[in-house]
Design a protein that fits this description.
Length: about 400
């Protein structure tokens, strides 16, 4: 969901102002090498937003089940994360202070917005308690679960139902993958074959011993993240081999639409998640063969900068649902029928605006401050250890 960039690469690569329609807003891809993946992760985030906004419309169970498969886009996030984290940190994690630098970077990227959105719901719950106002979902304000949520441990042993900002379980699951990343690198090294074997063993084990693993969230949701993350590592470590597979950039949109259609179909989700893996792998190959040389599918260069909003859209859309849909749409305006549908559609634009403002006014500054603070603290600790 969140992006990572090699320090040696300029943000936005060689994109020119004319090719980046969002340049005026200060949005640019992290690099020109994975533009199709940038678009895919943005589409995935917005598909999950649509899924949760549809839930607000009060669809009947039969209609809702038609869209429930969109939740598998979370598994697409895990694959992309595994590939990009390996691309950026795979050779540096074993260097001196490598894991420390990696951990600081990822904490600074993920934690500020996670804490901010969690504390928003803590404030909402307390305000409702002291004012006597009824909450729309009071069961998600269990303060006994707050420590696990704040520490990103709720994808290991969380509370049911999902608490506070309910989508943050996947951030906890991804963070567990970060903690295991040095072990994964130690096991597979630079071997694409060993990475594939580890991925295959984990995935097979889940299908054999954990029926419905693709539905895991609060209870060992990290297990759900493991095969996707390992697949991403496998893809990157086999990049030289995969680059030989002739997947033209013109297939990007058909593949992405095909994956989405499979998620919307009545097909068993245990099969659909495999199709999502295959589709993500194919789009990774498209980037290997085409992005660096500028051979892109239609619209990709223009949309790719929006990949910078992926994490923000994912984490902030529940807040938009709470304030814009539930409070304003339901309680203040009393919308229903077509008016509610129009309100929800407009809400997608609200998510984008709020996400952009969050990136520019909160996340980027908070990341810089937290990264400097953690680096200073750890450097001081290291110096004391050396002196001792």
């Amino acid at each position: 969901m969140s992006s990572a960039r090699k320090p040696s690469e300029p943000v936005g690569g060689s994109s020119t102002p004319s090719s980046n329609v969002f340049g005026w807003a200060g949005l640019a891809p992290d690099s020109n090498e994975y533009l199709h993946l940038d678009v895919m992760r943005f589409v995935a985030a917005m598909a999950i937003v649509v899924l949760h906004f549809l839930g607000w419309l009060g669809l009947d169970s039969v209609t809702w089940l038609r869209f429930d498969g969109l939740q598998l886009f979370v598994d697409v996030f895990f694959v992309i994360s595994g590939a990009i984290i390996t691309y950026v940190y795979g050779t540096r994690i074993s260097q001196r202070w490598g894991f420390r630098k990696f951990a600081i970077a990822r904490v600074a990227r993920l934690v500020p917005l996670h804490w901010a959105t969690t504390l928003f719901y803590v404030a909402v719950g307390l305000a409702a308690l002291f004012s006597g106002v009824d909450l729309d979902a009071p069961e998600k304000y269990n303060y006994a679960c707050l420590p696990q949520v704040m520490l990103l441990a709720h994808a290991i042993d969380g509370c049911s139902p999902l608490q506070f900002n309910f989508v943050s379980w996947s951030i906890g699951a991804e963070f567990v993958m970060y903690l295991f990343f040095p072990a994964f690198v130690f096991i597979v090294g630079s071997s694409g074959l060993r990475a594939f074997l580890l991925f295959a063993v984990v995935l097979t084990g889940l299908y054999l011993f954990d029926a419905g693993w693709w539905h895991r969230t609060y209870e060992l949701g990290a297990l759900r993240a493991a095969p996707g993350f390992l697949l991403g590592m496998t893809l990157y470590l086999n990049r030289d081999l995969l680059r030989r597979i002739p997947v033209p950039s013109t297939l990007f949109w058909p593949i992405l639409l095909g994956v989405t259609a499979a998620m919307l179909s009545p097909m068993d989700q245990g099969l659909v998640v495999l199709l999502a893996y295959v589709g993500t792998a194919a789009i990774f190959i498209i980037d290997l063969r085409n992005s660096a040389i500028g051979r892109l599918s239609v619209g990709v260069r223009r949309i790719a900068p929006l990949g910078q909003l992926t994490y923000s859209c994912y984490m902030l859309h529940p807040l938009v649902r709470t304030v814009y849909l539930n409070f304003l749409g339901n309680r203040i305006l009393g919308l229903s029928g077509d008016a509610a549908i129009i309100w929800a559609v407009l809400g997608l634009g609200v998510v984008l605006v709020v996400s952009y403002l969050s990136v520019k006014l909160f996340e980027a500054p908070a990341r810089r401050v937290l990264r400097r603070f953690l680096s200073r603290i750890l450097v001081q600790k290291t110096m004391k250890d050396v002196e001792a």
